[in-house]
Amino acid sequence: MLAVILSGGSGTRLWPLSREAYPKQFLPVVSDDSLLAETIDRSLLLDQQVRVLAITNEEHRFVVAAHLQAQAPERTAGIILEPVGRNTAPAIALAALAAMEENPEELLLVMPSDHVMRNTDAFREATAEGSKAARAGKLVTFGIVPDAPHTGYGYIKAGQSHGPYQDVAAFIEKPDQATAERYVSEGGYLWNSGMFLFRADRYINELERQQPAMMAACREAWSQRKADMDFTRVGAEAFKKCPDDSIDYAVMEKTDDAVVVPLDAGWSDVGSWSALWDIQPHDENNNVCRGDVITEDVSGSYIHSEGRLIAVLGVSDHVIVETDDVVLVADRARVQDVKKLVAQVKAQGRSEHRFHKKVHRPWGTYEGIAAGERFQVKRITVTPGASLSLQKHHHRAEHWVVVKGTATVNRGDDVLLLTEDQSTYIPLGVTHRLTNPGVIPLELIEVQTGSYLGEDDIVRFEDTYNRV
Predict the structure, then answer these.
(1) pLDDT score recorded for residue 271
(2) What is the longest distance spanned by two Cα atoms in the chain?
(3) How many structural domains comprise the chain?
(4) pLDDT of the residue at 466
């Protein structure tokens, strides 16, 4: 079995904790591990022979690679990069084409990277039952047994039973409250989980039958693939021609071979702050508090601090989330509208929808500390053995002070070795590079001065990570 993990989403519904450049699948929103880490672990626990294949994009590729290297170095089947987002049906087609290279009948277990599953044993049992149907040529989806009427999920109407699985009678769009209540009271309706299981060849054949243009574009893109470090890059222009559609619309709603396996495993898609409140342990006042939080006369609320103390008095059913640069206060019943706030942030030309103050790079992180006219201060952390690109800037000079660890600095023709409390100056226009040759993280303070301090003022000459 190949566990295909889809990790291309931006996760704006959990803003401000989730940002486009570092969305919710990379965050420890439920436990000490990220949602992606939990998904990888859940995959590996299914069977000793399961391998993991990730589908992601250019921007998130190094974070996904770091997760796989840390958790599944011997059981990683690869990382496929989508040049552009074309929804789930084409992404899964690329995974199926990759599997076909070795075994056309390989089972593909397709999972989003940002879901929660509290009962892994129940998930393992459901996957085992689904595997039997998938090996027989069925296209399996997993339907979540509803524990309440929910208007935020699509539903699956189950048809004739075949023991552990049932035919899919219909896929149903997100209902209104009254309809959702009727579905739960009647029974026979399941939430659409967005997880699937089938043979690679069956998916390819079905997609070719239902969406020939999509399959043709995916085949062309796959035929033009190139290896780049740990990643597989498909033909960009060919993939851009691919129709944009989900697997539900492109295949599952049209095929005669769709079946559903009921799943009752404490599942959540963590699709909003209220969903996160639902699945976490509540205190005696029905609150969920994470981080440095104190409350008085507060009930039914989700309160999350990333650093500063949050003191809350006399409110009910609220969501309060603090990050380094944003504080969100919302009615818990209105959290689906967080996307409207994100739209305002974008419209104002701000950056808080895309980046945290701490920005992740393949070599480590940087964090803005202070900024003003013609200057900017950052805290830079470089992973042991990692190196920034050989680069120069047209509009800024840089001063570096080592706070912790050891730095090798290429500055023009000079090579410097700096230790704690030592510093250097990089004049405007001088080619330079920063490397951590040690075994502990390198931390330094960077002071930038100049007429323009944007991140796009970088001319790269060499780069370990093949960035442009």
Answers:
(1) 87
(2) 76
(3) 3
(4) 82
